[in-house]
């Protein structure tokens, strides 16, 4: 993090990345002294409400973070920034997105947790857009022009006021990760019926935090000398939607050998929770989340390597798991290596239903399309894993062919999850 004092003194001359958190109410003019070099500007967690007209002079600026400020509109000057690819306005008070207010270069747009009721028709001009976060707004419809955004890969629409979704959304050729729980047409009103028991939190002794995500905190806990993991939800809207929808999807998914086992749930007043089987410490994350550079695709630690045999076994299990979920009318929405746990024997445990959606309200056609969207996600997972595979054998070749089939932009040419599972059980 930097300071205004450093900026004013010239100590940051030539900087490519600038972050200021100083309760700013006005845009610091001194930032323009970095116009020749500045590529990333982070002014999140201040009190800004507008940007000056001179902002467009930051011609090298690629990424701007303005989350948790006081913006009520998207400043039109952003559309004049020639190099901007990423824009973040999470947690403001934006109610208006004016026509042509965003640069055509935009690839990643974060508008989570605002007050947006509609998007402009000009939104369809953002043909380079790959990642779009709109959860926690007041959208009632999506502009039909968005079907021109054919590079969209990840879309978050949960916790809005959408009354339906048009078929064109499910037909976007590169759409891979889609979440839309908690809208007017599919918002959960109460917990779904489950054979699992509603346990009081007082039955457990919380010991320490072992994990944390957007929607909740995971604790190591004990009950009757048995160690378990308890996810306690924060109760607020997250980047993926409402906790109630996440819990319901988790319960609706039922049991599968490769899903993290849910033992019970907790519903006490406003406190929701899930009691889960503790994952053996021999399991670790299959990959790491996407970076600013990869945008939608996972990353891996330096030196990470998986054999083609291990990848094949992982993919078999993932296809079976996804087939099970869709049979229960649940989409995961976040099929990624970083949400997948694996041990040295390539045994898989899959979880994190934060972006999951109950598909029961969709038409049969849309449910089928949703399945093919997640097939593409599995193809990307295979492709990512092959990037850290040094094998050059028949198994690797078959996996590469499978990834290509799953990722094709001709959606109807993708295999279904059932067909994929059958292909994966054939002998190599």
Provide an overview of this structure.
This protein has helices at 4-9, 167-170, 243-252, 308-327, 364-386, 394-407, 417-425; strands at 17-19, 40-42, 63-65, 86-88, 108-110, 131-133, 154-156, 177-179, 197-198, 205-212, 216-223, 226-233, 262-268, 271-277, 284-285, 330-331, 340-342, 348-350, 357-358. 20% of the residues lie in helices and 18% in strands. The strands form four sheets. Strands 1-2-3-4-5-6-7-8 form an eight-stranded parallel sheet. The chain has a six-stranded mixed sheet with strand order 9-13-14-12-11-10, covered by helices on one side. Strands 15-17-18 form a three-stranded antiparallel sheet, covered by helices on one side. It folds into three domains: 1-152, Leucine-rich repeat, LRR (right-handed beta-alpha superhelix) (Alpha-Beta Horseshoe), CATH 3.80.10.10; 197-277, Phosphorylase Kinase, domain 1, CATH 3.30.200.20; 284-425, Transferase(Phosphotransferase) domain 1 (Transferase(Phosphotransferase), domain 1), CATH 1.10.510. Helix 5 runs antiparallel to helix 6 (394-407). The longest helix has 23 residues, at 364-386. By secondary structure, it is of the alpha/beta class. The chain starts with a helix and ends with a helix. It is globular, with a radius of gyration of 23 Å. The mean pLDDT is 95. ATP binds at residue 231.
